[in-house]
Amino acid sequence: MNHSLGPTYEQLLGSHWVLWYKTSNRYSIVDENFKALLDAYLQSESINTFRSNLDIANADTIADRIQYYLEQCHTQDIDQTVSATLSFKPVIPSFSIHYECFGQRFQINFDSELVKKTIHPSIAHLEVNTTKKPNVVFDVYLDQDQLCLFKNKTLLRSAPKKDYHLIQGKFVMELLSLIHQKEESDWVGTFHGSTISDGTHALLLMGESGKGKSTLSALLVAHGFELVADDVSPLLSKDLHIYSNPSAISLKEGAFEVLNPLVRSFEEIPETLFNKSKGPLKYLVPNPLLKGSYSCKALIMVNYAKGKPTKLEPLSIKTPLETLIPESWLSPKPKHARQFLDWLAQLKIYELTYSDTASVVKEISTLFKTLPNAQD
Amino acid sequence: MKKDNNTDKITRKDAIKKMGKYAALTAVGTFVILNPLKAQSSSPPDPGGNPFD
């Protein structure tokens, strides 16, 4: 059999194997039974040998399905996010704003109020009044139906305007690389989730949209925890730490009532209306971090469930990964894929069900105390 | 124009495809295949809301 069809890397996590295929940058989670069959298939001299060795009635079906499985694992997606070739158009911007973070100065030019709303509200707290020359100048503007992001007049990415979240994502990647003095190729990935720290370790909060990740982050920040990152949590290859993302916490209207009594001057935070489907948003500015990065020790799948008691339970890796991987950007480099699997292996995995604020804060405080004390 | 009325007939291969990301091998194990995003992104907007329209 063609051994090269097998996964490039494999990692046993609890009762599941997580396999990575270099050709497609796809991850696969399989149970032990399937893994045993897959290994037997790959080690067989031929399909016929595999079938005869199985010696069961449905050997043909199993062989077909393993073949189908491997085809899927090696199928490369067409990258639909490749930017059109657009050259920089020198126009007088409607807004030209200076920002500073971690000693790095940057300027963003926006061509309209609407375009400004794609990026500015989440970093408005970084705005500075200065005439000093910025390290980097970004331009964000609409060129017909394409929303374009330029860095020092070089196109970073363009996307149809309805896909503005891709421009936001690319900008965040650039911002993280700028303030932490890294290159994009230094990151293992950017996870769709929020990272919270007690000043020593960090926890990654993830879950489907509307399950209360950002609300929980804001709650924990109101109770003295540090926000490392909201929405986009970046993992650096060099030390496998999650680095701080200075963007403010974006809160939907549903969270306002819970947070109003807990966050000082919450009512005074202006509401931003950008996308009607998301409703009005408030951007909660996190406190400055004590450190620029933290070692993440646990992955928590957040599940806000009205009326349910707070419960933190160990969870198999399968369910969280089914949400995390499709919503995260993960570097296709083999070194980074191996690091991601190793990083997963050291994490504790939990599901957190909550509705009551006091008990959920207590539960997270207790969890932080049980984490190992290693500083790495 | 000839109308194709065979749309409800699918091959076995199609049936497996239609199982989506889950394809269960009953009694012999299960697998799931996951695709990371090809490009960095922030939270995508819910369907139906495009602020630029």
TrEMBL record, chain A:
InterPro entries: P-loop_NTPase. SUPFAM superfamilies: PEP carboxykinase-like. This is HprK-related kinase B.
TrEMBL record, chain B:
It comes from the Bacteria. This is Tat (Twin-arginine translocation) pathway signal sequence. It comes from Winogradskyella aquimaris. The lineage of its organism: Bacteria, Pseudomonadati, Bacteroidota, Flavobacteriia, Flavobacteriales.
